[in-house]
Amino acid sequence: MKQKYLLGAGGLLSLFAIWQGGALLLAKSVPIATNLAPQATFESLWWLFSSGEIIPHITASLRRIAVGLGTALLVGVPLGLALGFSKKLEMWCTPSFQLLRMISPLSWMPIVVMLLGVGDLPVYFLLAFASVWSLIISTTAGVKSIDPQWLLLSRSMAASKTETLCKIVVPAIGSHVLTGLRVSMGIAWVVLVPCEMLGVNEGLGYFILDTRDRLAYSELMAAVVIIGLIGWGLDSLLRFALAKGGNK
């Protein structure tokens, strides 16, 4: 475990050194690139948090992620359960779902804006659309991994469908759903930034556009660092939940 943390810290230090070296090299031809260097970035990072300037944007982004992933869960898990228990339904839906899954969510942006207007609603839709497929696939796989003997036992004991779902199915697919949620969260977090360039007035994606327009490149780099740190933190929480679930 100690070696794991030491090697991880070494990797981060190497990344930091590459960042510093790249900024210095770029500054020779583009002087403004000094604002992209680590020192200027961390100074802006400190200012953004100490002044509270970045907090509303972080809050807005996390709210959109929560709504988008929540919607994906409400749609994806029941669909995955239905596909897992019905072979005919799975054969009927799989070609259409595979076709839709392979379309970049960002390619829907002009259509979604035309139909839903600007604001939070199209962002919620795009995040949910981007993240629902992993949940459908992982939930379906979880249902198929259930030992048929457990389902037979449930029927022999005259358990209701609700009891079977709560006592057998949900515990059996829990780790699969968490794995799908982890993948979905990563996809949604990556898609979030371009989605927040869709006519909203807050959020990390909007903040990046704003700093670009103001030529505040050190703040832009600080926003990039914040996006990476928050995404890392969210993924770590899901990995922790997955590890806890696997130990039960």
Gist of the model:
The protein is an all-alpha fold. It has helices at residues 2-29, 38-50, 55-85, 87-101, 109-116, 120-144, 148-156, 161-195, 204-213, 217-246.
Give a written overview of the molecule.
This protein has a single domain, classed as MetI-like (MetI-like fold), CATH 1.10.3720. The protein is an all-alpha fold and 248 residues long. It has 10 helices and no strands. Helix 2 crosses helix 10 and helix 8 packs parallel to helix 9.
Portion in beta strands = under 5%
Which structural class do you get from the secondary structure elements? mainly alpha
Distance between the termini: 21 Å
Q: Give the helix tally.
A: 10
- Helix percent reads over 70%
Report the order of strands and helices. Answer: HHHHHHHHHH
What is the number of domains? 1
Q: What are the segments in which pLDDT stays under 50 over at least 5 consecutive residues?
A: none
Query: What is the CATH class designation?
Result: Mainly Alpha
- Major sheet description: none
The CATH superfamily name is MetI-like
Subcellular location: Cell membrane
Transmembrane segments: 65-85, 97-117, 187-208, 220-242
Family: Belongs to the binding-protein-dependent transport system permease family.
Protein name: ABC transporter permease
